[in-house]
Amino acid sequence: MKRNKPQSVYIPKLDAEHGTIRQAAEDLHQALAAGGEKGDVRAVVHVLMQQINAHFASEERMMRSSAYPSYDWHKRQHDTMRKRMQECEGRADVGDHARVSELLEFFEAWLGDHTGLHDRMMSAYLRNFEREQRAS
Questions:
Q1: What is the residue-level pLDDT of the chain in tens, covering all 136 positions?
Q2: Is 41:97 a contact under the CB 8 Å cutoff?
């Protein structure tokens, strides 16, 4: 399957976090392709979840600190994906690699769409907010 290319949101910290998440997702693809032991896949899913949770928390802090007007909507998107990926953890715990793979594909498509539109909208607001703060 063709994976979405990373798109910059023009905030280096967030771009780096997106890259870290994409690398963790690629590591999971490799573990699944290698027919990894249940524990191997579980460990990689756990790392991916840590990266996702840390990144979402980072974005949410930035949105709150700037009074981002679409914060609630954006956070609901994160919360929905957190739940989906918690299912991925549960499926990895029982060795259901087929479902883990399906959820991973869904997540990667979602991340590409989310980053390409919603995070870019948020980052434009954040960059403007920062410029206004420096100017005042």
A1: 445 566 899 999 999 999 999 999 999 999 999 987 667 999 999 999 999 999 999 999 999 999 999 999 999 999 999 999 999 999 999 999 999 999 999 999 999 999 999 999 999 999 999 999 999 8
A2: yes
pTM of this prediction? 0.92
Domain ranges within the chain, ordered by starting residue:
12-135
Q: Which two tokens stand for residue 73?
A: 């909507």
d(CA 128, CA 135): 10
CATH superfamily assigned to domain 12-135? Hemerythrin-like (1.20.120.50)
